[in-house]
Amino acid sequence: MTESGIIRGVFAAALTPMTEDLAPDLTAMISHFGWLLDRGCDGLGLLGTTGEANSFSVHERLAIIDAVGASNLPKDRLMIGTGTCAEPDTLQLTRASLAAGINTVLMLPPFYYKGVTDQGLADSFARIIDQVADDDLRVVLYHFPKMTGVPITPRAIELLLRDHPNAVVGLKDSSGELDNMTSLLKSFPGFGVYAGTERYLLPVLRASGPGCISASANVTSTMAAEVFRAFEESESTADDLQERLTAVRQVFDGLPLLAALKEAMISITGRESWRALRLPLTSLDPAQSKQLRNSLDQAGFNLKAGS
Amino acid sequence: MTESGIIRGVFAAALTPMTEDLAPDLTAMISHFGWLLDRGCDGLGLLGTTGEANSFSVHERLAIIDAVGASNLPKDRLMIGTGTCAEPDTLQLTRASLAAGINTVLMLPPFYYKGVTDQGLADSFARIIDQVADDDLRVVLYHFPKMTGVPITPRAIELLLRDHPNAVVGLKDSSGELDNMTSLLKSFPGFGVYAGTERYLLPVLRASGPGCISASANVTSTMAAEVFRAFEESESTADDLQERLTAVRQVFDGLPLLAALKEAMISITGRESWRALRLPLTSLDPAQSKQLRNSLDQAGFNLKAGS
After folding, report:
1. Residue B87, Cα to own-chain centre: how many angstroms?
2. pLDDT tens-digit series, residues A100-159
3. Of the partner residues B56, B58, B280, the one whose CB lies closest to the CB of residue A116
4. Which of A80, A124, B6, B15 is the most exposed place for a label (fewest CB within 10 A)?
């Protein structure tokens, strides 16, 4: 962990397993989170886009946070998604995360209204931090403009770092734009900009970023962890390892990502229950399943081995 | 009301007044809703985009629904926004609306995930209708692609009308594209496509649509009601009245709409408390306030008279 409380390395944005009636399967969930850490993840992002957080009610999210809090998972390697459209909900979830011993939250902006001002955006985060009023709180901003339509702008980051330099420690950049990641790292030294995909793990590490938080790391974490280790140990293999990792990541492009990842989990675990997704998301159709399997084969990727 | 339960005419998408600490001001709210009906609105859309619904917790929305249910407002002229990102929340709010005596709900699609399938989109609505299982339920779909990023596609409408012809009665089209409105009205005869702006009130009425549901009708309802009456009575003044109405509506373009409408309410009522907006929205700055007042003057619009 860095001075500011940023954890370095590879984070999986963890999937949430569900029961047949589409409730979060808390037992399978804790087990999946432990498995990801065993597979080489340095940390986990829970209840993010990949975790289908926004498809759960606040009540369901609180139950998930409580279950994680009561588990033996290492709390200092977790961050929990708590950002919603409604300030009271974001506040309640953030407080619950701290109460469960997880001090780092991954916070979406309020994402219903578009075209908001930089000040309004910054104040949305600041009001949560002010109301939580806990020095242990660490906020990683969640920049995912294609999904939210509400980009976290450099000006909003500047306002937040000015007023809340201890609480606001980083950003997950799911824009898919490496230029944005490196530009933010340059503009805000010490601010932890994570790549939102393992495709940019090595470039972001080289630009002094802390690592990546990635959906597909549910499947690729073993390979991604190798890239991180090679970088940390200045091994010459880092570029080759990144190239192979990128090729596997690209398999998931052009497929509905969450459905493809859950489909991959069926292959890895043999558990058909991994297919369950909440609407509006839907499972892969047979042609897509076949495409996924063939493409992973072609990339020479063994799902069970994760490499 | 038409056979299918669609109410014709002018709906204001009602603003939600708030207290100083940004809680919904239930007393001022009921009073505002009554005032809008007195000003010529045929109906009201409550807890929509203009009502800042998604900035409230489910608990707060339930309190608003209960307050409306307990009021003397005519329930058959109201529709309530109940669509959220999470199925359990949408279900709870929809049930509460029916329990409060308001059978028509205006339903956003689950709006976090983008690029969803037509089937997944249709099933999102269908699962709510199936679980509510109340023959009195009337659903108006809420199409607002710029805000949600999740358009209600013709194919999803087709699937819903096939399986739930009694429950799915219409759509609020906030795309701003008149062509989409008239095309849907042509494709689905009897399906009530409301214009999402009073700018297209007359064209949509002429294309056999039921009317409009509009944010700016909080301010312009008197004028919009005149257009509707002129159309209903085949008066030759309808086009001129629409032209004047459109000119006033255009004043709000280029200004943050909700902030501008709340600013206008201050002028109408003299109550400064109308300025309160929940983040991420912010009030007009002084230059914007001045622009609003000057432009309304230039359009010859008297705020207090509403004409």
Report:
1. 21
2. 999 999 999 999 999 999 999 999 999 999 999 999 999 999 999 999 999 999 999 999
3. B280
4. B6
Whole-angstrom distance, CA of residue B158 vs CA of residue B153:
9
- CA-to-CA separations, B52 to A113, A176, B3, B186, in angstroms, rounded: 9, 30, 31, 32
- CA closest to B255 among chain A residues: A115
CB contact under 8 A, A279 and B87: yes
Q: Could you confirm whether A142 is annotated as catalytic? A: yes
What ranges in chain A are assigned the alpha helix state H? 26-38, 58-70, 87-99, 118-132, 145-148, 154-163, 178-187, 201-206, 217-232, 238-251, 257-269, 286-298
Q: How confident is the model at residue B2 (pLDDT cuts 50, 70, 90)?
A: low
* CA A15-B116-B87 angle, 5° bins: 65
A11 forms beta bridges with A43, A213
Question: What ipTM does the predicted assembly reach?
Answer: 0.96
Q: Answer whether A35's CB lies under 8 Å from A218's CB.
A: no
Q: In 3D, which of A205, A209, A215, A207 has the Cα closest to residue A171? A: A209
Low-confidence spans in chain A with pLDDT less than 50: none
User: Over the stretch B127-144, which tens digit does the pLDDT of each residue have?
Assistant: 999 999 999 999 999 999
3-class secondary structure, A302:
coil
Q: List, in sequence order, every residue forming a beta bridge with B13; answer none if it has no partner.
A: B45
What is the identity of the amino acid at B137?
A: L
CA distance B278 to chain A (A): 8
pLDDT digits (tens, 9 = 90+) for B156-201: 999 999 999 999 999 999 999 999 999 999 999 999 999 999 999 9
